[in-house]
Amino acid sequence: MAKIELRNVAKRWGNFVGVDKFDLTIADREFLVLLGPSGCGKTTTMRMIAGLEDATEGEIVIGDRVVNDLDPKDRDVAMVFQSYGLYPNLNVYENIRFPLRVRKVPQAEHDERVRRASAMVELDDFLHRKPAELSGGQRQRVALARAIVRRPAVFLMDEPLSNLDAKLRVSTRAQIKNLSHELKVTTVYVTHDQIEAMTLADRVVVMKKGVIQQVGTPTEIYDNPANTFVASFIGSPAMNLMDGTLQGGVFQGNNVRIEGLPGAGEEVTLGFRAEDASVAGPGETPQITSKLYTIELLGDAVMLTVRAGGSLVSVKAPKDFRAEIGDEVAFHVPPGICHLYDRRSGERTGARHPPSGDGPPPASDAERIATTPTGPM
Amino acid sequence: MATPKAMRQPASLRFGSAAFLTLWCLIAAFPLFWILVMSFKSPADAFDANPLAVIFGPRTIAAGKGLSVIDLVLGLAVLWYAVRFAFTRLPQMVRAFTAPGLVILGWLVGCLGYAVVFIVLFFGLLPVVLDALNAIAGPLGQPVIGLTAEHYRAVWVGNEFYRNFINSLIVTGGVVTVSLTVGTLAGYGLARSGSNLAFWLLIAALIFRALPHSVLVAGYLPVFINSAEILRPILGDAAPTLYGQPLAVIAVLVAINQPFTIWMLRSFFQSIPVELDEAARVDGCTHLQAFRRVIMPVMWPGVITTGLFSFLLGYNDFLVTSLLLDAQNQTMVPAIAGYFNRETTTTDQAEAIAAAVSITAPLFLLVMVFQRQIVSGLTAGAVKG
User: Does A229 fall in a domain?
Assistant: First the structure.
């Protein structure tokens, strides 16, 4: 049980900057997800917390100790690796027991603790097997059990699900969520998969090229991306981003015209989420009119894509909507769902949206908020 | 086992490859088989122009040294069961009777006990039983194939070949121990280090490996001969002459062998994922504990394979040992060459052959005992988690 403070932490290899000015406090018992594309420095940050990588600059504090100069073993952390890192010569039981043996925990406690940890990840039937005889999901559960057997102050998970197939990923993800709820240990979780971040996190840190882009709850990051990078990284599909000009409250671009926006006379990028907009009904003035580029059936909805504002723009339509590629379609994009960004810097210029969104929220929006996990922060 | 259709070969190809393999095995195995046969015959038979006489040895039989059909059948049967026992029951018994922490000790005791029992049974009890059987068996008891151990007795007892054997043990044991100890530590360090220095160290090792052995020997020989004078200022009168000392030869052989072991062990260490080190360190190990408790247990196939190669180098070396050791302290390989340097008679040659067979036997034993580790070490698939 400990909070983690990263005070202006940086990592450089020669001229190459891995992580820059990373300043963050992770609360006790918080589940923090570091999210970003590969090479953004999220794993380096975690390895600096673990002690596997030295910080070039700044202080790392776990609990109330500065741990910069401590060995990994003295930091009271447990780590789960992407490629499991199991000891191939030991069976599952001995793998889970290894941290207890190395740390000289009294022998008498070993069996009970190993069995409790293995029961938590449902490995009871495999204790005598070697790692080579297990499937990927089982191996990752052994790694989880090895991490929780010791009750460390901090869990570190380095893309634990990325070597698993899609179906296992969903079930193991649920298991991790449940475990963290049960154990209430501060957890730092690294991933490049935004769905994992959204489902697991209390707070998400979005990184790009070693620099924090935004820190916030999943809802906050989804509803109010701080810049175009976050907007295009979070959500499936990502936010639609259109280039255009904003004059007298009117955004204008190729095939698009939206009235009633604040601000004027700027080169802007306008974003909105596919599920916030809708196909223009009879009597509504459409904001986007264009030829249909593609139509994708998703099962619960239909995704319509057109060219507008210099890029491809997707809008969700009801699942019974049908059209042919090349047909003329019209979308209703009310100004209330739009996000405005400076085109050059990519930073948000428009007002932040309150979580419920201003103006009449579209039907799908209310539904989304109900299913998005909200953290305590 | 069914072969997939794509891999099935036409009959002609299968026949051809089988014929080639048979021929190749015959050619490769023939010298070994031939010296084995020759070493058990009297010199007159061993160097007979007629191959059949070499195999059956009529003059050896005439001298009263031969085996009857009963001897052959019973002897081979006992040998067969002894080998079977060694590979099936012995490991079981060792596992059943030793405590988990004392496995190596258990194996030592098991093997020693096995060797004693085997020698008593095979060389003590069996000849007595066979003599009795031959006496009452009539024609089946008549010797049909000549076999005499006189050359072995001459080599091991008369020529004191056991001294050479002990010297070989010292030299190879030393070479294996030193080069594996240094090799594992250096290989691990070099495998885990990304620095430029590590790269240049490896290149330097490669250059040393490429040097002809005689270059090193030429460098060491004068120093070894004069070492007493060179070392006198430091050690006083206790300064040793290194020439002729098996322990000094270890240093030279290690110098020759070490680059190779470092390279080989480094590649084994590289095939072990770094995550294992890191997991161990997060789980509570120091650097050294991670190496000892996590990395080394996974490394055994690599260590044994590399150890076998250094063993072979030390055991089979001729150039270094023959130049740096005097006649009293020779290892086995130069000692055999010594048999040909005197006024060579056919008896000397037959004894040389018996000595040659003697030094081959330990190699067979070693490869058979460690074959599983060697195979997994050579394929290097056993270390993936």
Answer: no
Q: Domain boundary residue among B137, B154, B171?
A: B154
Q: Are residues A196 and A264 in the same domain?
A: no
Tokens encoding A131: 């790692």
Q: What is the rounded distance in angstroms from the CA atom of residue A284 to the CA atom of residue B17?
A: 82
**B100: domain range?**
32-154
Number of domains, chain A: 2
- Is the CB of B283 inside 8 Å of chain A's CB atoms? yes
Same domain (yes/no): B76, B216: no
Task: Give the one of B278, B284, B384 whose C-beta lies nearest to A85's C-beta.
Answer: B278
* Consecutive H or E run containing A118: helix A107-120
Q: Which residue of chain B has the CA closest to A49?
A: B282
Identity of the highest mean pLDDT range in A253-257, B18-22, B134-138: B18-22
Tell me the ipTM for this assembly.
Answer: 0.80
Give dist(CA B64, CA B30) in Å, integer.
Answer: 28
- Say whether both A199 and A281 belong to one domain: no
Residue A195 maps to a domain:
yes
What's the number of domains chain B is made of?
A: 2
Chain segment B29-59, per-residue pLDDT in tens: 999 899 898 888 888 888 888 888 888 888 8
Rounded to the nearest 5°, which phi and psi values hold at B45?
-75, -40
Which H or E run contains A51? none
Residues of chain B with C-beta less than 8 angstroms from the C-beta of A51: 281-282
- CB of A218 within 8 A of CB of A377? no
CA nearest to B301 within chain A: A89
A·B CB contacts under 8 A: 74
Of A50, A73, A131, the CB nearest to B284: A73
Beta bridge partners of A98: none
Let me know: does A143 contact A160? Beta carbons within 8 Å: yes
Same-domain status, B133 and B257: no
Shortest Cα distance, chain A CAs vs residue B202, angstroms = 24
Each residue of B184-193: pLDDT tens digit?
A: 999 999 998 8
Domain that holds residue A17: 4-223
- The residue from B154, B183, B204 where one domain ends is B154
CB contact under 8 A, B275 and A84: yes
Same domain, A215 and A362: no
- Minimal-distance CA residue of chain B relative to A80: B279
Q: Chain B residues with CB inside 8 Å of A86's CB? A: 279, 385
Residue A33 β-bridge partners: A189, A204
If asked whether residues B36 and B141 sit together in one domain, one would say: yes
The answer to whether residue A364 scores a pLDDT higher than 50 is no
- Look at residue A26 in the predicted model and tell me its pLDDT: 92
Q: What distance in Å separates residue B227's CA from the closest CA in chain A?
A: 47
In a domain, A59, yes or no: yes
B283, B298, B385 member nearest A84 (Cβ) = B385
Residue of A nearest to B292 (CA): A102
